[in-house]
Specification:
The protein is α+β, with helices and mostly antiparallel strands and 561 residues long. It contains 22 helices and 20 strands. The longest helix has 28 residues.
């Protein structure tokens, strides 16, 4: 290399060395003390700040579940005895229980203000978010939140969740998790070596979840729950029960009760006892309990016989006490079995009012089991309703196929018991309410739903599950029979004080191995303009008529301003 190039390269490297030496001098000598002091007084920590979960609201805006922020105080390991003494004094003055060591779990707003004002060295106060539900009000419907299980983590990690986040475990909290869940933020907290916070800033702002408005009416839910609780208290042999109230116009759930229930606020502590309880309080009987409908199914048989032309509203059938069309079976009407009497000649409206078995044995035989099953499913029985809650049961519509599937034998005469709601017919209380709403709602079968609206979005639109072919004349005949039940029949006393007329049908379904039947009742109101449809079931509750007062209380609450 020529000497000139060597001198140039050497000059360049010498310049770099001089510049580097100047930088070191500035860092270590000129500004060293300042950087050292800053390093001693500023220790950065990144905290994850949970986002507020959206609220669950009832249809009128009343809060059903919300997040509540509580504060706790953490103490530095080297906190001074003087600060501990002062902290004890502050806790005593503000009525906060603290033993003098460890974190303070429940810092009140007043204590928080005083700790902040006095700038106590070594005391760091941080927020904790807790879900505040509605206690024992509709726990199966509203649900609860909790820490993720390993199985849930496999799902939620792909959605950007942190492992420590809580999620909806069941009920509406789980069904609407995607709306309710917010996005956590990140806060940078700088403290000095004494543990005192010197600055805070958000590197990521938390974003709250959206409020979710449900179709539930909190006041009606409370009334429904009290009505069913009173019934069970007055009938100690009844093991449990359920009640569902639906909006006839769109399938929205106005109230849903399952008893026995539990208190969401103490669920974790109570869980061992709840899980061991033979009455199964953890099961939502309204959507998971399967019950024989008893005589409430006669509404389906009536609709099928009328629409298929086997009967007209004026057709009369003679109650002979014992149905002798087949050599076997030859079942009896309940009135003949109990009192040795008959109902005589009856139209479909009169047969519904009197719950005449002979009439519906004959009507069911004429219709046939296949067509009877078709109408049951068209009216919403044996089909899931579409409700957002997990675990809904589809139920069973009696027929040869199902009987064969369980190893049984279907006989031609089996249609008789199926026509009055026995055989293998098994439906949820929700399906019975759905059937009633469809029948009296001009045959419009709406998907049952809990979601009314999500914050910032359009209101939920009702979803049609089909239109059942029902003539107004035939529906009027069925409704007329249901009206007679509440005006002059078994429910007259229970409904006499209501300001509107109500249509209803009772049922009693014998349970194998039990001396007392399940009580079943469906009804709707007002009679001239159906708006609300109810179904009530009480396990071993006896006669469906016994549920009349409970149903009347719910309708009264619905009608009250």
């Amino acid at each position: 290399m020529p000497p000139r190039r060597l001198f140039a390269a050497g000059g360049f490297f010498a310049s770099v060395l001089v510049l580097f030496a100047l930088l070191l001098w500035n860092l270590q000598i000129t500004s060293g003390a300042a950087y050292y002091a800053k390093s001693q007084r500023s220790i950065a920590q990144v905290d994850t700040i949970p986002a507020a979960r959206g609220r669950l609201l009832d249809r009128n805006g009343k809060v059903l579940a919300r997040d509540e922020t509580t504060w706790s105080a953490q103490l530095a390991e080297d906190i001074s005895p003087a600060v501990l003494s002062r902290l004890q004094t502050l806790c005593r003055e503000e009525g906060v229980a603290w033993e003098g060591s460890g974190p303070i779990q429940e810092v009140t707003p007043c204590l928080l203000a005083r700790i902040t004002e006095e700038d106590l060295t070594g005391v760091t106060v941080a927020p904790t978010v807790q879900r505040q539900g509605s206690g024992d009000l509709a726990p199966h419907v509203l649900g609860r939140v909790g820490a993720m299980s390993p199985q849930e983590w496999e799902i939620y990690q792909d959605r950007g969740y942190a492992m420590a986040e809580t999620v909806g475990k069941d009920g509406a909290e789980a069904a609407f998790e995607a709306y309710l869940h917010g996005t956590p933020g990140q806060r940078v907290v700088e403290t000095d070596r004494r543990g005192q916070i010197t600055s805070t800033s958000f590197s990521v702002q938390p974003q709250a979840g959206k409020d979710v408005t449900l179709t539930l009416d909190r006041t009606l839910q409370q009334s429904a729950q009290e009505a069913m609780t009173t019934f069970l208290d007055e009938h100690p042999n009844a093991a449990g029960g359920a009640l569902v109230a639906l909006d006839v116009s769109d399938g929205g759930v106005l109230a849903m009760v399952s008893l026995p229930g539990y208190d969401e606020a103490t669920f974790s502590a109570d869980y061992p006892a709840l899980a061991a309880d033979e009455n199964n309080p953890l099961m939502n009987r309204a959507v998971q309990g399967l019950y024989a409908p008893g005589s409430t199914f006669k509404l389906v048989t009536a609709a099928a016989a009328l629409e298929e032309g086997f009967l007209t509203p004026e057709t009369q059938i003679l109650d002979t006490g014992r149905y002798t069309y087949y050599d076997s079976p030859q079942p009896q009407c309940w009135l003949y079995r109990q009192e040795g009497k008959t109902h005589g000649l009856e139209t479909v409206s009169e047969a519904i009012a009197d719950s005449c078995n002979i009439f519906f044995y004959d009507a069911g035989r004429r219709v046939g089991i296949e067509t009877l099953g078709d109408y049951a499913r068209a009216l919403g029985l044996g089909e899931k309703t579409g409700i957002e809650l997990a675990g809904e049961q589809a139920g069973v519509v009696a027929g040869p196929a199902y009987t064969a599937s369980i190893g049984g034998t279907w006989y031609e005469g089996s249609v008789l018991s199926a026509a009055i709601g026995q055989e293998n017919n098994r439906f949820t209380p929700l399906q019975l309410a759905h059937m009633t709403a469809t029948l009296v709602g001009d045959g419009s079968r709406w998907q049952v739903h809990l979601l009314k609206q999500v914050e910032g979005e359009e209101a939920q639109e009702k979803v049609s599950l089909g239109q059942v072919r029902l003539s107004q004349t035939n529906v009027a005949a069925i409704k007329e029979g249901m009206l007679a039940v509440t005006q002059s029949g078994s429910l007259a006393a229970a409904f006499q004080d209501l300001p509107v007329q109500v249509g209803a049908k009772t049922g009693s379904a014998q349970v194998t191995g039990e001396e007392t039947s399940n009580a079943v009742l469906v009804c709707f109101a007002p009679y001239d303009d159906p708006q609300i449809a109810l179904a009530l079931v009480a396990e071993q509750g006896g006669s469906g008529a016994a549920l009349g007062e409970a149903a009347a209380r719910v309708i009264a609450a619905y009608l009250s301003p």
